[in-house]
């Protein structure tokens, strides 16, 4: 090692080493201190490149298998400059040969949130045309390593899995349980070919997994975590490096090996990777989730919605289900105002005389559904003191839309000379400026004609990209996704008080490329209120509480406890009220109103509260579970019982309890009881399908 560059940013020590030939290596990224006399093995130095960059036609002499890494260019980049300004480190490296001349700028930005670092790299081509097969955003070797080197195989990986109606279901396993072993090569001269990784394909960024993960080392009380911020395709992988002795994390956007992404760069053209946030701290998964939550708050667009947390009524879930009419809406508008809702959203179907799915595109109200006109309804909403909203799915058009079939193919995602049809929809291509202008005109018209202040922006039909004017399908998709984000940015600049809900068949696109812009996220489309509660209780692991919109939908055939359960599902997050309120009896309506009143009395704490899971992270179909928000003086905790033979449930807290109050329902119906003893809250529910909200004085 010829020179050391050492930086201390918050609690994280970051150390780079300059090797012969001015090749730079990241040798320490840790909450532990770094000692200058520490011996760094040669095999780890060689494996610790700052970026991995593969250019088409360049050999990878030490590469084996289909995992990323061991790129010749990544290892041979020459340091040009490294400096730290504030809490942001910028590294400029270059590579030059007879055929290739390029420069790579890597930024590691720790200025947004303590102990969180946003990584991104930009490659600029200074020579003849090249093709990029992949470039990592984040590349860290010896992750979770310590003074005392230990086999990484017992580190525990925590991953949030997703499905429509089954979002954010966490699973965990040790790395050796997933097939990654230490020092697999008997001669100790090569890495294995194994990697553990997740690849997201298509524009549903959270289709199977959320774009973040946690890796916990229980032996040295270390946890590392990452979040990829892209509203489309991404990839991360954990694998062995340094002849199988160390663990490396590589993460970023799409790559050619995983997503068939490929990018041509002509002379003086450049490409920037998607951002990846990374942190490593002493602690367990709960501390990691807390830090991720604070980081997500720090990168979010400043907006009033997340400060005030208004109550939203939406006519869809277990209610009109896409069949709105003036006759059906009027009594629900009355009831929504009566119980205290502040926004009223008319969901899908308002633009179609019949089936609402396959003819979307013009976004003009149905005269058959609304003989008096849609403006009559939105004015009634305004007269009742609520802000009107409408459902849109602006990125698609139905195959039976007259407008769609009159437009040129250049407006749509095409492959092999044909428009792609999926689930009776075409997908618009936001790389086309005419598409962006059309989308803006739709929003302008709806705001002007119907005075809406809320858009539920749904996204039910993902796509894999186009082969038109693109180097690869995946690069077309990345360009489309970035164009869509730029369009959203312009929309918020034009209408800063407009609330746009991010929905993707529920939570299929809850990434923080979207949620750094959108103030509210539909968490799930789950129609079973018991399972909806379990998803609500886990929502804040992936989305900040003040952005997490959860349905409350009292059923026509339900009872009082069912109403209470539905309301508790939402009361520490964002209320998406629904259900046939006009068809409930007075007592059940009064329970809805009471829940909203209680919510309004505590909602100022939601944007500040720290999510807590004192009884562990819940899963679908758990018998009992809880979720809490902690403030400096109080804890607000919801406790649910779904179906269990046990009538009692205990919550252990990290501090002594001084006082407990049941917040909702205020008047106990005779089915629930609670008591506390030192640092425990014990609840007793006399039957299944019950929930309560409590306030604990610390």
TrEMBL record:
Protein name: Alpha-galactosidase
Keyword Hydrolase: yes
GO process terms (BP): carbohydrate catabolic process
Keywords, alphabetical: Glycosidase, Hydrolase
SUPFAM superfamilies: (Trans)glycosidases
PANTHER family registered for this protein in UniProt: ALPHA-GALACTOSIDASE C-RELATED (PTHR43053:SF3), GLYCOSIDASE FAMILY 31 (PTHR43053)
Entries under Pfam families matching the protein: Melibiase
GO molecular function ontology, one term from the record: alpha-galactosidase activity
């Amino acid at each position: 090692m010829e020179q050391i560059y050492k930086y201390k940013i918050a609690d994280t020590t970051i150390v780079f080493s300059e090797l012969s030939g001015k090749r730079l290596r990241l040798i320490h990224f840790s909450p532990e201190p770094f000692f200058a006399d520490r011996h760094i093995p040669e095999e780890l130095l060689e494996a610790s490149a700052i970026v991995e960059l593969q250019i088409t036609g360049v050999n990878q002499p030490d590469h084996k298998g289909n995992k990323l890494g061991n790129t010749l260019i990544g290892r041979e980049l020459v340091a040009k400059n490294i400096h730290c300004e504030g809490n942001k480190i910028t590294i400029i490296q270059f590579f030059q040969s007879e055929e290739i001349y390029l420069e790579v700028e890597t930024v590691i930005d720790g200025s947004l949130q303590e102990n969180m670092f946003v990584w991104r790299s930009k490659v600029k081509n200074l020579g003849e045309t090249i093709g990029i097969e992949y470039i990592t955003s984040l590349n860290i070797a010896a992750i979770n390593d310590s003074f005392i080197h230990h086999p990484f195989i017992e580190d525990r990986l925590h991953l949030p899995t997703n499905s429509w109606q089954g979002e954010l279901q966490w699973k965990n396993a040790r790395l050796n349980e997933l097939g990654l072993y230490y020092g697999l090569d008997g001669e100790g001269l090569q890495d294995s070919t194994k990697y553990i990784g997740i690849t997201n394909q298509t524009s549903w960024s959270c289709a199977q997994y959320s774009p973040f993960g946690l890796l916990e080392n229980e032996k040295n009380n270390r946890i590392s975590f990452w979040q990829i911020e892209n509203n489309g395709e991404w990839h991360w992988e954990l694998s062995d490096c340094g002849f199988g002795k160390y663990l490396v994390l590589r993460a970023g956007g799409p790559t050619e090996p995983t997503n068939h992404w490929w990018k041509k760069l002509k002379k003086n053209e450049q490409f920037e990777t998607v951002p990846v946030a990374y942190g490593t701290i002493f602690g367990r998964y709960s501390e990691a989730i807390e830090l991720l939550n604070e980081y997500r708050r720090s990168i979010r667009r400043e907006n009033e919605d997340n400060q005030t947390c208004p109550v939203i009524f939406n006519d869809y879930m277990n209610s009109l289900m896409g069949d709105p009419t003036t006759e059906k809406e009027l009594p629900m508008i009355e009831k929504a105002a009566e119980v205290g809702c502040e926004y009223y959203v008319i969901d899908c179907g308002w633009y179609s005389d019949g089936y609402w799915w396959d003819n979307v595109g013009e976004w003009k109200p149905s005269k058959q559904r609304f003989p008096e006109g849609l403006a009559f309804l939105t004015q009634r909403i305004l007269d009742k003191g609520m802000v009107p909203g409408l459902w849109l799915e602006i990125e698609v058009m139905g195959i039976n839309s007259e407008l769609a079939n009159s437009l040129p193919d250049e407006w749509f995602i095409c492959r092999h000379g044909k428009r792609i049809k999926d689930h009776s929809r075409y997908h618009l291509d936001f790389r086309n400026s005419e598409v962006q202008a059309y989308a803006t005109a739709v929003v302008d018209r709806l705001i002007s004609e119907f005075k809406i202040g809320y858009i539920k922006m749904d996204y039910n039909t993902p796509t894999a990209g186009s082969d038109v004017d693109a180097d690869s399908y995946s690069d077309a998709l990345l360009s489309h996704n970035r164009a869509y984000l730029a369009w959203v940015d312009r929309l918020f600049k034009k209408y800063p008080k407009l609330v746009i809900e991010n929905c993707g068949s529920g939570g299929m696109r809850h990434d923080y490329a979207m949620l750094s812009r959108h103030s509210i996220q539909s968490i799930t489309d789950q129609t079973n209120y018991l399972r909806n509660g379990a998803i609500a209780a886990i929502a804040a692991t992936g989305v900040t509480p003040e952005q997490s919109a959860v349905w409350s939908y009292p059923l026509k055939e339900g009872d009082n406890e069912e109403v209470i359960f539905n309301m508790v599902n939402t009361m520490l997050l964002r209320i998406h009220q629904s259900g046939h309120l006009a068809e409930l009896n007075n007592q059940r309506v009064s329970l809805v109103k009471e829940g909203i009143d209680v919510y309004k009395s505590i909602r100022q704490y939601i944007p500040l509260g720290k999510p807590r899971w004192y009884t562990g992270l819940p899963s679908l179909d758990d018998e009992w579970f809880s979720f809490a928000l902690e403030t400096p003086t109080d804890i607000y905790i919801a406790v649910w019982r779904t179906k269990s033979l046990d009538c009692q449930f205990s919550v252990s807290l990290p501090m002594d309890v001084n006082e407990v109050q049941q917040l909702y329902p205020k008047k106990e119906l005779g089915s629930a009881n609670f008591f506390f003893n030192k640092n425990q809250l014990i609840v007793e529910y006399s039957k299944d399908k019950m929930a309560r909200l409590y306030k604990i004085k610390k």
